Amino acid sequence: MEKNIFTQKLEARWEKGLFLCVGLDPVLEKLPAHFAKTPNSILEFNKQIIDATAQYVCAFKPNSAFYEAFGAEGWSVLQETISYAQEKYPEIPIILDAKRADIDSTNLGYTRAIFETLGADAVTIHPYLGQHAVQPFLNYKDKGIIILVRTSNPGAGEFQDLLLDDKPLYQHVAQKIASEWNTNNNCAVVVGATYPEELAVVRKIVGDMPILIPGIGAQGGDLEKTVKAGQDSRGWGMIISASRSIIYASDGEDFAEKAREESEKMHRQIQNALKK
Amino acid sequence: MEKNIFTQKLEARWEKGLFLCVGLDPVLEKLPAHFAKTPNSILEFNKQIIDATAQYVCAFKPNSAFYEAFGAEGWSVLQETISYAQEKYPEIPIILDAKRADIDSTNLGYTRAIFETLGADAVTIHPYLGQHAVQPFLNYKDKGIIILVRTSNPGAGEFQDLLLDDKPLYQHVAQKIASEWNTNNNCAVVVGATYPEELAVVRKIVGDMPILIPGIGAQGGDLEKTVKAGQDSRGWGMIISASRSIIYASDGEDFAEKAREESEKMHRQIQNALKK
Questions:
Q1: What is the pLDDT of residue A74?
Q2: What is the pLDDT, as a whole number, of residue B166?
Q3: B247 contacts on A by Cβ (under 8 Å)
Q4: pLDDT of residue B1
Q5: CA distances (Å), origin A106, targets A131, A133, A229, B36, B241
Q6: How much is the average pLDDT of B24-50?
């Protein structure tokens, strides 16, 4: 089957050895001191982070929650952040981490918002409502539809690990995605770096499907274990996401330079882990 | 335990026999012909729907997807819709149907967006990440946190009906909410009117907790079965939501009057069903 545009962009980055994804999740309180505490500062901050880290990433991932917090103004900043990155670095896909999912007729609103109005290349969604509900997402053949399977947070197992027919829920979700949801070859899954054993299990289930792996950095995931468990048969397939450890590497005027250094460091660590 | 403000508002409406919730889910294509096809028309449309139906409802429920479709401008319309309803009808709670949920630090962005910036009285959320993740929502003692349990869409059972110890996942979710998540007495659940048997089971599990019941009207749920299965020990506890069948009752200049008639009709049907 032909690769969609999101996957094509990802593979071109993986081919260069780039697996890091920088999460653009800014909060006013953590902006470097020389920024005014206004939503517009976030746009300027994002632009500098994007420019500083672009050479080391396979994707950028703004999380919509941090923009919605500022209402309409935040939504404009999100829109302008995506436009800035896409115009300057059209080769780098933008994942909107929005964790949406509603019934099918309502999801048409979300797909319009995310793929048409904002123009993101991919989106994260919840699996709970099932395939019929999320079909409007799956119908976008050239976008990436990234479904939550095993999340990175403490307590993720409350429902995700419940044993249904002797198999945890998250494995049922992964199997459904691999065997039934992926007819347009545009699915990917989320598995937290904080759960490397579960990551290895999911990798077996989904084959060479892309896995978005948050939880490295501030959340404490182990990079070496992640790469070992997460890589596909080609040594690719990973979108390893870090946010706070990179974008807040310094709260001084050198924040962009420190973000560059931190992303380069993580890029090299991933490279070293792949060689083991 | 003291009732929170959301529950107090709901109970004051239930006491008047009001159980209908009007979903404010406008799309440009379906606006009456005399409206210009612009986001600002949606605000005017919403205001007239709110005024026409307020006397028959226990809550209004805008769904964020329909506003996000218009980007920042849509977010402003959502904000102004909520403000309009709250200023004119402060006794009627506003449920933002947003179906959010992320890890805990990110949910702080969503709670700020929904409860502080937009000022909604309640929000719908996904259960998949577990209690630890959604604690920032649960910490809002005076808001309503309405968790998806059994959704109204076709195919909802794909994961929600998977059996664990001979009991489907959605019942495990309902039990966790009733026994562990509700320490601030601010939880409610979503069960679709399209599944009345499941609704009766969930009602037993959650006691007198409010249940948001979408799926009446365009989705085909049966009102009589819904009321029989959904009412609590007081004959209350239901937020029965309809959107398209009310807000698009007419596409002419009489749309507000027809929406009023349709909501009055549903109000009386609910009343009659309660008497049976």
A1: 97
A2: 87
A3: none
A4: 59
A5: 14, 9, 36, 22, 14
A6: 96
Q: Which residue of B has its CA nearest to A152?
A: B103
CA distance A117 to B28: 15
Residue A191 contacts residue A201 (beta carbons within 8 Å): no
Is B154 touching A (CB cutoff 8 A)?
A: yes
**Beta strands A238-242 and A163-164, pairing class:** unpaired
Closest alpha carbon to A94 in A23, A3, A193, A18: A23
Q: Strand order of the sheet with strand B57-62? A: B57-62, B20-24, B238-242, B211-213, B187-191, B144-150, B122-125, B95-100
Predicted pLDDT at A1: 59
Q: Do B100 and A65 count as a contact with CB atoms less than 8 A apart?
A: yes
Query: What pLDDT score was predicted for residue B108?
Result: 97
Which positions of chain A have pLDDT values less than 70?
1-2
Rounded to the nearest 5 percent, the helix, strand and coil shares of chain A are 50, 20, 35
Radius of gyration of chain A (CA): 18
Domain A5-275, what fold?
Answer: TIM Barrel (3.20.20)
Whether B220 and chain A come into contact, CB under 8 Å, resolves to no
Examine the residue annotation and report whether B99 is marked as an active-site residue of this protein.
yes
At B48-68, the pLDDT tens digits run 999 999 999 999 999 999 999
